[in-house]
Amino acid sequence: MIDDPLGPLDPNFAAAFERDLSRPPCQLYLISPLDVTGAFPDRLARALDAAPAAAFQFRVKDVDQHSAARLAEPLQRICADREVAFIVNDSVSLAKRLGADGVHLGQEDGDVREARAALGPGVQIGVTCHDSRHLAMEAGEAGADYVAFGSFHPTTTKEVRHHPEPVILSWWSALFELPCVAIGGITPANAAPLVKAGADFVAVSGAVWNGDEVAAMKAFAEVLAHR
Questions:
Q1: Which 3-state string (H, E, C) describes 204-220?
Q2: Tens of pLDDT, residues 35-68
Q3: The model's pTM
Q4: Quick one: how far is CA 38 from the chain centroid?
Q5: Predicted pLDDT of residue 12
Q6: Of the residues 65, 105, 165, 219, which has the fewest C-beta atoms closer than 10 A?
């Protein structure tokens, strides 16, 4: 857990929270597996045709930028054809090279203001804030377009050390208009409490790609339809 200078959240805050129905409904934020080779473009097309997603994050590791761009281009076209925002994980330079719709920055991946200067005003910038309201407020002040909290559940997608309670989503949504993303081990079975707590987006990866992507997307759509 990050030592948040704002101190612990009152757990009663969550009990009193009611989702503001004037905010747009919670949407799906789809994250790629690390391996996007082979038949993955076809899987992505099937997934996005099965149910809505607001965004798709291209997340690959340990490949050079030229190889990453080559892998990204067909996926970017699939997203563009379906009006799904194409977000690049970690790399401002790759996002700029691709003309991506956005970039998602971890705490070690660069400064929001520098990313904005490089990418321009129209590109979405998201920031991982773990379990810290302080980091999220800093990201918002720096000009981020959304903040991400997690991991809310155990996940095999990446190593995690931060496990916030859903109340952080309630607190954020009650005080700020800036959208928040819930991430980490989210499945159709456990997504509803995060939506109720105030998440504007639920970010999912393994729950879709580790099985039948069409069935998983339809299951998430059913959960998100119940406001």
A1: ECHHHHCCCHHHHHHHH
A2: 999 999 999 999 999 999 999 999 999 999 999 9
A3: 0.93
A4: 24
A5: 74
A6: 65
Q: Where is average pLDDT lowest: 13-17, 40-44, 178-182, 196-200?
A: 13-17
Count Cα neighbours of 14 within 13 Å in the Cβ-side half-sphere: 17
Query: Residue 221, exposed/middle/buried by CB under 10 A (0-12, 13-18, 19+)?
Result: middle
